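Key idea: predict the complex, not the pieces.
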Amino acid sequence: MQSFAYGNPATIQEALALLAAKWGEADVLAGGTDLISLMKEHLHTPKRVVNIKNIKELEGIQKTDAGIRIGALVTLDELAKNADVKAAAKSLSDAAAAIPSAQIRHMATVGGNLCQRPRCWYYRQGFGLLAMKDGKSMVPDGANQYHAIFGGGPAYFVSPSSLGAALVALGAKIKLVSAKGPREVPAASFFVAPQDETSREIALHPDEILTEIVIPAGAVRSATYEVRQREVLDWPLVTASVVLHMRGNVVASAKVVMGYVAPQPWDSAEAAKAIAGKAITAETAEAAGKAAVASAQPLSQNAYKVTLARVAVKRALLEAAKQKV
Amino acid sequence: MSSTKDPKPKNAVSRRGFLGGMGIGTGAVGAGLLEREAMAAPAAASVVGPGPVPITLNINGKPVNLTVEPSVTLVDALRNHLDYTGAKRVCDRGTCGACTVILAGKSVYSCSVLAIDAQGRNIETIEGLPVNNPISTAFVNHDAQQCGYCTPGFVMATKGFLSEHPSPTMDDVKNGLGGNLCRCGTYMGVRQAVLEAAKNMKGAKNG
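Result:
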């Protein structure tokens, strides 16, 4: 790891003063589970690391009339165990609880989960976010079994955040702050597919800090279904996170968002449309699963993910339908 | 123990003591110079480094002073600067569990924590456990190790796990200890040991 200066601010203002206008100068350190690995690999070589763990304003989970406010420093362990989150957003609670391992959940934070860099092995081996060689991505003809089946090109990595799909489905807002002031981004626009090598995969600017997430109030049924190759110490192959607004036994409206299938959490309007106005049964859930993957474009080695995504959507819908909200 | 440790080789020459003794003289001089340099440099109030900075870690209830760069991880500080060699550095990327220690009551990967960041919080390492503690004893009873390299991490992960789950089921154990790998594949023994330790620790607590 390259040596760096270490800032230990106690307030957001102090922290912002230590950030820089362009990437590469300073990195924000929270749980450290990703940043420290990135620095060991020399993928991030900041001159300054800004530890934000002593900023009290970034802690805690509060239930308000507007919804549930989750501070950026809340650990995945705290998020998974929080009763308010479990009651109002089971999909998010379950997504946090499923992240391996206990040690990671104790350290990793909600903000860090959203800001972690892609796990694409081309990126992690130093070939860049877009894995370009001679002006062409190496992924479509390369080792792409864990890559995107939607929205591919020029980026083919999959968004690494386990919480991302759940937050997009729940219509969460992500709050960011810079020296110029705060701004709020819908979770759906926080994750972006970079078009060039110098862009980032999230809407956060280098001089900003992610401060909190707000889950809007409202009675919804929600569920996250994950498909994993290994139960522990791994990322999911595919996830599906669904949110249902019910009218009696019938789905008034739905959100169906798949994770690990695209450079962003992939919001499937087709699947939501397929299930709207219907009661959830094995048949309607299956039809929604099929609709969710109808436009998938798998690469040479990942057609299996299309099947996994179809089944994950179906099972997430069936799971959410069981809830009493 | 501290980083300004005795530059003389230890009397009882262990492999580690010998190797440590070889490099320690120049190391101490280098650290001293850099430390003065860092202190002389006028930095912003809350920024230190990149050179070595003096820090204090609270290890097994004892404050320990050392001087390290901010980029030094907790596992490296423990092993290379303080001779607490129980926590093992294996994958060094937070995916194997061999470096597990307990920080502020929770199990963490010490390869993924900066030493400077661990200040002000209790650090529990395997060296802090009594020899015949219920967890280590249960590991011995169930042959829960082969090469033994993952064992300190497993024992500390177990300690953290049992503090949150005093009466675990086998499924709880599988999931709760999922953050530690054993390349020898001694999981059956480890799981049995964790269940036995849970039983014995509860017995002790309830008198």
